[in-house]
Amino acid sequence: MTLGQSPVTRISDADRLGVDPPYDYPDYVGTRLRAPKEPLVVLQHTLSELTGPVFGDRALGELDHDLTRQHAGDPLGERIIVSGRVLGSDGRPLRGQLVEIWQANAAGRYHHSVDTHDAPLDPNFTGGGRCLTDDDGRYRLISIMPGHYPWPNHANAWRPAHIHFSLFGRALPERLVTQMYFPGDPLFPFDPIFNSIRDERARQRLVSRFDIDLTEPDWALGFQFDIVLGGRESTPFEEPHDD
Amino acid sequence: MTEIALTPSQTVGPYLKIGLVGGPISPHLVSPDDPRAIRIRGRLIDGAGDPVPDGMVEIWQANEAGRYAHPSDTRDEVPLEVGFVGFGRSDTVDDGWFEFVTVKPGRVPMPDGRPQAPHIVVGVFARGLLKHLVTRLYFPDEDEANDADPVLSGLEESERATLVAQAEDGGLRFDIRLQGDGQTTFFAV
Hints:
The complex is a heterodimer.
Chain A: E1 9-11, E2 40-42, E3 79-88, E4 98-102, E5 128-132, E6 138-144, E7 149-150, E8 158-159, E9 162-167, E10 176-181, H1 192-195, H2 200-204, E11 209-210, E12 221-224, E13 227-229
Parallel strand pairs in A: 3-12, 3-13
Antiparallel strand pairs in A: 1-2, 3-6, 4-5, 4-9, 7-8, 9-10, 11-12
Chain B: H1 17-20, E1 38-45, E2 55-60, E3 87-91, E4 97-102, E5 119-126, E6 133-138, H2 143-148, H3 157-161, E7 166-168, E8 171-173, E9 176-177, E10 187-188
Parallel strand pairs in B: 1-8, 1-9
Antiparallel strand pairs in B: 1-4, 2-3, 2-5, 5-6, 7-8
């Protein structure tokens, strides 16, 4: 523990520990003008970093978790159930966590003015949803299988089917935005965003698992996707304890 | 204790508004009618100097008394404020503008007890960022506190300058430069 002057440590992409992709990853063209070139300054954690927003008591809309029931009719596509647990790096379930998702429709088109892909919009599908985790850290969302879509990164570039996820964790270092993929997608070897994660095992943790037990007969396929949140270093958390 | 494997980050992509804007999280941390309200606006700018119109900025801060609305801030002698969460989110729109309405936070201590200058933690998300970025906003009317701040005083002057907002039209202006000359200082947390 250093008192007095705080030592400043800078950390480059190459030295950054952990499972995350580098900022500087030119195969993903969007990084070229947006990735910072200066090393990050390592910040000694203060209360500002040991805290973060708490949403557990937030009232959400009754149908926020069900992307298939947000309009007058049923959206086109295969209905799916996506569920999993949100855990801390110590394995503890994180309850009351806000889970936010967004995705393309079954044809691979986003309900967004920027998306000009020549595929149909679905008047019964917006593609945004959210829910809170229960006491076991579990979330459950209903949606439809998102389609593949082309993007202008390189010639004949297509994204693997995915759902975007946003999570907060117990404090700022646990904040995570990621993408969930589906098993066996033939586009994995060609996608620079997926492959920006250099560790094969870490990459595979973004691929959901088909689960026959989560699948509901005559209604929807089930996919399991667990999410583990952690920061640069293990952080002690003050939490209310029941025990 | 067994550590289990972390889930890696991926970019928020260009369509984040579908899932992250218009929900329960607002860019107004207090009502614009609150007599204490300050407006903070700025532009998100890329390495070519062009605006980033498809990004998102989040802020996290203590209340006016310097207390975080979080169980890890156990300083009961500093009052909480009913209804003040301290978190806000703004997408960036045409020309890269984002905007928040909030109150100026009070001072929060370092782990060793030294006071930090008032500051707001800022998160930056965009297509092209494979992981979000974290920086801090400091206040231009706090020269003395800024000079003594343990985080700011560890930085080079040029780095420090990117973290202090500017007074503008009765509010604050805080531009965020992702890359190139005058790049904002970003922190590993």
